[in-house]
Write a structure and sequence with these properties.
- With 534 residues, the chain is mostly beta strands.
- The chain has 3 domains: 327 residues, monomeric porin ompg (Porin), CATH 2.40.160; 105 residues, Sandwich (Immunoglobulin-like); 78 residues, Immunoglobulins (Immunoglobulin-like, Sandwich).
- It has 5 helices and 31 strands.
- A 12-stranded antiparallel barrel has the order 2-3-4-5-6-7-8-9-10-11-12-13. Strands 15, 18, 19, 22 and 23 form a 5-stranded mixed sheet that branches.
- Strand 29 and strand 30 form a beta hairpin.
- The longest helix has 28 residues.
- The chain is rod-shaped.
């Protein structure tokens, strides 16, 4: 098994080196530096998660992930006070991000046990189990939810498989933020047929039976993991439990006895993984785990009748290496001002700081009294500022007016002048221009608003001379303002005008043009009879 572990570890190293060389060649010829999608915390099955607790995460679409785990475990006192066994463990897996929400992987789990202190010392040889994993997950806001289906094909001796021993497990996955980390839960059921991979287990020596790694019982299982990022590294703390249920389908007396011995037995595990991203595509990890597994008493040993369950090492640990290939590409990262201020990466542009000023002023009426509640707005070329209202003194202050930026200590002014506009009900709009704006406070000259005068009206009658006949369709033009009217069939017309002094011009075909002055009073009506001569 040690040779298996070293071989799997070496294969990932070689694949990683090849990928790095290919990526370097592509980078050298590319116009821009391209980087693959962000790295993930990968453990068992070449997928995100821990040793026994997958997270509700999938691989990025198009990514191929290769992973290996190698280690050793130890247990004492299982078959007697002097019994000890060491287990070399190894796993090599490859997974593929089929879609954004679906990942598929296959893992080859292997082990090699060595026993001491009971009967004839021996070893059970190599055992290898292929394991197909299908995971689907989706982000639903702050919560990640998904499910995972596993198909396990236990074998009698590596790399053989036994079709009747195919076992299936299904689990629900949930992950959610927990402070800076990610907290994940999973639970499910295993339909375990692995015992079918062993012919006549009662004929095997006890030390060989405890090394089979198979079970006569189905299992309900669950687990939790807290993963904490630490820059390029991460730490995962996890716990898991397997509870045996059911038993042999048509048991004989011995199997019934074994079922009674195994009923209510649990496997409880706790451990950690700690990893580091060595590059965008390669990461390494270490792991350690302790397990509480059903024990075997002296009576069971003497009766040569022990429950057929997976007897795991009490403590184990090891190392792993992962490599990623392909997947979505992204151009060299662009940095926000916040990123640059916090991390100052070498590709950062100069940090830009806005230059903000204040614009103040006063609004009064024609009598010099303050105008309260007038809406004051500012017109800028490159940005907008929310309007404000004048206070009880008719004063206003526009704060945080952006006029430019400071880049690496040098001021760049974009707004050299501003226009202030004022409007309020019952008064004519007013405005003022600040020709030169500067850092700090800027005072605008007082803005005076004139009242809106009540409207007036011009009425009249257009006739022709001699004869005094009414003129239809005569055009009346009023200046200033260019207001116009037209006489009706009875020669009359009316035009609404604001109070003030006007000059009117009257034209009609075949008649001489006439001009005259008129005064419109507030709420007044000016009447003019206009005679046009031929």
């Amino acid at each position: 098994m040690v040779r298996w572990g070293l071989a799997s570890f070496s294969s990932v190293v070689l694949l990683s080196a090849t990928a790095s060389a290919q990526e370097a060649e592509v980078t050298a010829t590319a116009a821009a530096d391209a980087k693959v999608a962000p790295a993930q915390a990968i453990a068992y099955g070449a997928m995100p998660g821990g040793l026994h607790t997958p997270t509700a995460e999938t691989l990025p679409q198009g990514v191929v992930q290769v992973s290996t785990l190698s280690g050793i475990g130890r247990r004492s006192g299982l078959l007697g006070p002097d019994h000890k066994f060491n287990r070399a463990i190894g796993d090599i897996a490859v997974a593929f991000g089929a879609t954004k929400y679906l990942s598929i992987g296959i893992a080859l789990d292997g082990r090699y046990d060595r026993h001491w202190g009971v009967g004839k010392s021996g070893e059970d040889g190599y055992v290898g189990d292929p394991h197909l994993i299908v995971r689907a997950a989706k982000n639903t806001g702050s919560l990640l939810v998904g499910g995972q289906l596993g198909i396990w094909v236990p074998g009698k001796d590596a790399p053989s498989v036994a079709g009747s021993a195919i076992s299936v497990d299904a689990r629900v996955l949930v992950s959610l933020p927990a402070g800076p980390g990610l907290l994940s839960f999973n639970g499910g059921f295993r339909l375990d047929n692995s015992a079918n991979s062993v012919d006549n287990p009662m004929l095997l020596a006890l030390e060989d039976r405890v090394s089979l790694g198979v079970s006569d019982y189905h299992a309900i299982f669950g687990g939790a993991q807290l993963r904490i990022p630490m820059g390029k590294a991460w730490l995962g703390l996890e716990g898991s439990i397997d509870a045996f249920v059911g038993g042999p389908g048509t048991p004989d007396a011995g199997e019934v006895k074994r079922a009674e011995l195994a009923r209510s037995k649990l496997i409880v595990r706790g451990g950690f993984t700690a990893g580091i991203h060595l590059s965008d595509t390669i990461s390494a990890l270490v792991f350690a785990e302790v397990s509480k597994v059903p024990g075997i008493n002296l009576a069971q040993v003497m009766d040569n009748n022990i429950p057929l369950v997976p007897y795991e090492p009490a403590i184990s640990g090891g190392i792993g290496l992962q490599a990623r290939f392909g997947g979505p590409k992204a151009v060299a990262p662009t940095f926000t001002e916040k990123d640059c201020a916090k991390h100052d990466p070498p590709d950062c542009p100069g940090i830009k700081a806005p230059i903000l000023v204040e614009v103040t002023g006063t609004v009064v009426d024609s009598a010099g009294k303050p105008v309260v509640g007038a809406k004051v707005s500012l017109t800028l070329k490159n940005s907008q500022v929310a309007p404000v209202a004048t206070d009880e003194k008719g004063e206003y202050t526009l704060k945080g007016v952006p006029i430019g930026n400071t880049i690496e200590g040098k001021a760049q002014i974009d707004e050299t002048a501003v226009e202030v506009a004022v409007e309020v009900s019952g008064m004519k709009p007013g405005k003022a221009t600040l020709a030169q704006i500067q850092d700090g406070k800027n005072q605008v000259p007082p803005i005076t608003l004139d009242p809106v005068l009540p409207p007036g009206q011009l009425r009249g009658l257009v006739r022709s001379l001699p004869g005094g006949k009414v003129v239809t369709g005569a055009v009346i033009t009023v200046q200033p303002g260019d207001a116009k009217g037209e006489s009706s069939t009875d020669g009359t017309f009316q035009i609404d005008l604001a109070p003030g002094q006007y000059k009117i011009t009257v034209k009609a075909p075949g008649l001489k043009q006439q001009e005259l002055d008129v005064t419109i009073d507030p709420n007044g009506v000016a009447i003019k009879n206009i005679d046009l001569q031929k």
